[in-house]
Design goal:
This protein has 454 residues and is mainly alpha-helical. Helix content is 57%, strand content 3%. The chain is built from 21 helices and four strands. The chain has helices at residues 2-10, 22-38, 44-64, 69-74, 79-84, 99-120, 128-138, 179-194, 200-210, 216-226, 231-234, 252-257, 262-273, 280-295, 301-308, 317-328, 335-345, 354-368, 372-381, 386-401, 430-446, and strands at residues 157-158, 162-163, 417-422, 425-429. The chain has a two-stranded antiparallel ribbon. The chain has a two-stranded antiparallel sheet with strand order 3-4. A hairpin with a 2-residue loop joins strand 3 and strand 4. The longest helix is centred in the first third of the chain and has 22 residues, at 99-120. It starts with a helix and ends in an 8-residue tail after the last helix.
């Protein structure tokens, strides 16, 4: 018990050092360097070189610091060790893939993911007050019960493809681009091109083929791959983002490919996550893949969440946080309380971390209670990385309620089209995605009769 209590303590917000002044100091160094250069002072470049060396030395020293052995024991990166630390779970809920039920729920999951993502995209990382102000200016409800009627900078393009007006209810012509959706499409391409036994090396090859750019951990891994770093090392070298949210925004396709089979979905997610992430970053992708998978076979989103927990180490920080969110959820009455609870629990945690955002998803699913509009509206209203949280909450709820449980306002302007920035694949049809995911899921389940047991 002492080890468990210590793990909880070390993962609390109080563990973060005070670094809020560092960026300001760097800014001041730049300003003084400019000022002294303008005034003809000698030695400016020598000082800057010294500062640069000091910062690199600090980065190197931090990267080399020994980590807590007890925490590391409870948080392995190896799949076999991860599975050994799981609590008991159902592992597989469906013996076979029920084509009709799966098809209805898959439509709901895909539409739900697209809707939640599109609602959150133009207000990504906005604080609650700013979103409320936009809603007042627009005459929109808040939390939103429809897409925004207007967003600032309507002609500015996101990812160089979709103008911001295309995320509004009046300007939408198909599902506009977002990295959360790009990785869902990329997961399908990995399965189609490499089969269900794909490896992390295969993931790397497909990324190099289709992915033009990325952010945080994915950006680091992509750069490492392009520099010749092998796939199994690409997520480790110079990657301080390895526990951030980028892993679990890629989780949904593995749940779609292994519906009702959370253990297999988590396994597929592991192979994908290992390219870019470690520890909480891996567990986040495994957890949400298993949760999405379970959502196809249960009647309430929180039941899927509880099943998802059985596919990651029981004492890892991510699992502890999800259990806290589940226990706290009955006392959370709205989006504002949810955000406050997360801020108080995880003081100092980056707003793109996997853990704090995952707790917001749990609160969104609890507040929604199976109502799709309330689920994504409350989740997006919480802020933080709210295109990611909105997309994931929408996918899980959508898989539970199916297309019939989603009001037409959320997909009326999708026009059976998803826009993409993937190389050579600018447009996907939603109906085609349903058929393609269904075909791959059918292939996976067909292997059960041929000796597949996991």
């Amino acid at each position: 018990m002492v080890g468990k209590e210590r793990a909880v303590k070390r993962r609390s917000g109080s563990r973060y050092p005070e670094v809020s002044d560092l960026k300001g100091l760097v800014d001041e160094v730049q300003l003084y360097a400019a000022l002294k250069s303008e005034r003809g002072a000698a030695g400016v470049e020598a000082v800057i070189r010294k500062v640069r060396r000091s910062l690199k030395d600090a980065r190197r020293a931090l990267a080399c610091l020994a980590e807590d052995a007890e925490l590391k024991k409870n948080e392995p990166d190896d799949l076999t060790l991860i599975r050994a630390l799981r609590p008991e779970g159902p592992r597989r809920l469906w013996k076979g893939c029920d084509g009709q039920q799966y098809g209805r729920r898959l439509q709901g999951a895909l539409l739900g993911r697209c809707a939640g993502c599109t609602l959150g995209s133009p207000v990504e990382f906005w604080e609650i007050d700013r979103m409320e102000a936009l809603a007042r200016e627009n005459g929109d409800r808040f939390p939103p019960d429809n897409y925004w009627s207007y967003v600032p900078e309507p002609e500015a393009k996101r990812y160089g493809v979709s103008p911001r007006r295309s995320y509004t209810r009046g300007g939408m012509e198909g599902v506009p681009v977002d990295d959360d959706l790009a990785y869902t499409l990329l997961g399908l391409l990995i399965a189609e091109e490499c089969g269900p036994d794909f490896t992390t090396d295969n993931v790397a090859r497909v990324w190099l083929k289709y992915l033009p750019h990325a952010c945080t951990a994915e950006k680091v891994a992509l750069a490492n791959l392009r520099a010749g770093v092998p796939a199994h090392k690409a997520g480790e070298e110079n990657n301080p983002f390895c526990e951030w949210i980028g892993g679990w925004i890629r989780s949904d396709p593995w749940g779609y490919l292994a519906p009702g089979w959370p253990e297999k979905a988590a396994e597929l997610a592991y192979r994908d996550a290992f390219l870019t992430h470690r520890r909480q970053g891996i567990y986040g992708e495994m957890f949400f893949a298993a949760t999405v998978s379970a959502a196809f076979a249960v009647d309430h989103p929180l039941d899927a969440v509880r099943i998802g927990l059985t596919e990651i180490p029981g004492q890892c920080a991510f699992a502890q946080a999800i259990r806290w969110a589940l226990s706290r959820a009955p006392r959370i009455k709205n989006f504002r309380q949810a955000r406050q609870a997360v801020e108080e629990r995880f003081v100092g945690m980056h707003r793109a971390h996997s853990i704090n955002n995952a707790c917001l998803v749990v609160f969104g699913l609890a507040l929604g209670d199976g109502d799709f509009t309330r689920t994504i509206g409350q989740t997006v209203a919480m802020g933080m990385d709210n295109d990611c949280t909105g997309a994931t909450a929408g996918s899980i709820c959508g898989a539970v309620v199916g297309k019939k449980g989603i009001d037409r306002r959320w997909y009326l302007r999708f026009n059976d089209t998803v826009h993409s920035y993937l190389v050579g694949a600018p447009v996907f049809r939603i109906s085609d995605l349903v058929a393609r995911f269904s075909a791959q899921a059918g292939c996976l389940f067909a292997r059960i009769g041929k000796g597949e047991t996991v």
